[in-house]
Design a protein that fits this description.
The structure holds 2 protein chains of 2 kinds. Chain A is mainly beta. Chain A has a single domain, classed as Immunoglobulin-like (Sandwich), CATH 2.60.40. In chain A, the strands form 2 sheets. Chain A has a 5-stranded antiparallel sheet, with no helix packed on it. In chain A, strands 6-8-4-10 form a 4-stranded antiparallel sheet, with no helix packed on it. The longest helix of chain A is centred in the first third of the chain and has 19 residues. The termini of chain A are far apart. Chain B is mostly beta strands. Chain B has one domain: Immunoglobulin-like, CATH 2.60.40. Helices cover 13% and strands 42% of the residues of chain B. Chain B contains 2 helices and 10 strands. Chain B starts with a helix and ends with a strand. The chains are: A mainly beta, B mainly beta. The interface between A and B is large, with 42 and 70 residues. β1 of chain A pairs parallel with β2 of chain B.
């Protein structure tokens, strides 16, 4: 009799557990993420004016440095880098750029800007980050005077 | 005779305690209306993570049972890479739980609680608000594939 009672209780408990769930329903939810790249330079324009104050007696080269702009980027693709180029094919003076204090990736060596893209930041991978853009303008006394108006392009591309 | 009475009493009490002797037959079936959905994350602003996508195109339809019930939610998404959460809006009966983060293999988690019982019959609805999120570091579907969740809602006694 004890055995029968135990069976009855177990049966009732199991029935209770089975009946606690009334019904269920499901559906499919798909999350897609497209490749996204964003870039933004903090300031619209930079003026590098080389004047007499930048000249050192006995030296041909005069230079000036600007660190007033910064770069923000985001990329969710792997193996990416940021390159930099100028629209000027044959500038009179020399303009160089280098990334300072990047929060992600590795700054490439200072590049002389030309129409051919040069590495600016490498190994940024899938990240969002920022860095300071340091421009250096260099003029030789022998190059005389004038103005180079560069349009600088920064591009996220496959490394 | 005494043992027989004791045996019957035990069975009666067990069945009563289990609710077997009360009419708890399912009044109706819980349903997801609106079918399957796809959410696409495709924009971002410099300095911020990609913009989350919100979808409120689907809803739950659930019956009033004989007892107080609740709805739980879980998901199955093998190889999940991105974020997905859900919360009930415009709940017709019961109380919406805080937003539930859907993670592959999660246990059943409260979604709507305190759905009133008696009188049984009739259906209630709630809007399903899904929020899909991704960070730049989490990558993209072209390289990793989509996250395909099978989200299951279960109506159970509370």
């Amino acid at each position: 009799m004890k055995t029968l009672s135990s069976i009855a209780i177990v049966l009732a408990v199991n029935l209770s557990a089975a009946r606690a769930q009334f019904s269920s329903a499901d559906h499919s939810v798909t999350v897609q993420v497209t490749p996204i790249t964003v870039l933004q330079v903090s300031s619209g324009s930079v003026n590098l004016n080389i004047a007499g104050g930048n000249a050192v007696a006995g030296e041909d080269a005069m230079s000036i440095v600007d660190q007033s702009t910064s770069l923000l980027w985001g990329s969710n693709s792997s193996a990416k880098k940021i390159s930099i180029s100028s629209n000027l094919v044959a500038p009179v003076f020399t303009l160089k750029a280098v990334a300072l204090n990047p929060t992600q990736g590795l700054a490439a060596p200072e590049a002389t800007l030309a129409s051919t893209p040069a590495d600016f930041l490498i190994n940024i991978g899938r990240s969002t980050g920022s860095c300071v853009i340091q421009y250096t303008g260099i003029a030789l006394a022998s190059q005389g005077t004038g103005t180079d108006a560069h349009t600088i392009t920064l591009t996220i591309q496959t490394q | 005779m005494k043992n027989r009475s004791l045996f019957l009493s035990i069975i009666f009490c067990a069945l009563l305690g289990s609710g077997w002797l009360t009419p708890q037959e399912a009044i109706g079936q819980i349903q997801v209306n609106g079918g399957n959905i796809t959410m696409s994350i495709s924009t971002a602003f410099p300095g911020s993570e990609p913009v989350a996508v919100i979808n409120t195109l689907t809803s739950l339809r659930y019956p009033r049972e004989n007892v107080v019930t609740k709805i739980t939610v879980r998901t199955n998404c093998t190889g999940q890479n991105f974020g997905l959460s859900v919360v009930a809006l415009a709940v017709g009966g019961g109380t919406a739980a805080p937003q539930v983060v859907l993670i592959n293999g999660m246990p059943d988690t409260d979604f709507i609680t305190g759905i009133p019982g008696r009188p049984p019959g009739g259906f209630m609805t709630a809007t399903l608000q899904y929020t899909a999120t991704a960070t730049f570091a989490q990558g993209n579907s072209t390289e990793l594939g989509d996250d395909v969740h099978t989200v299951t809602y279960t109506l159970i006694a509370q």
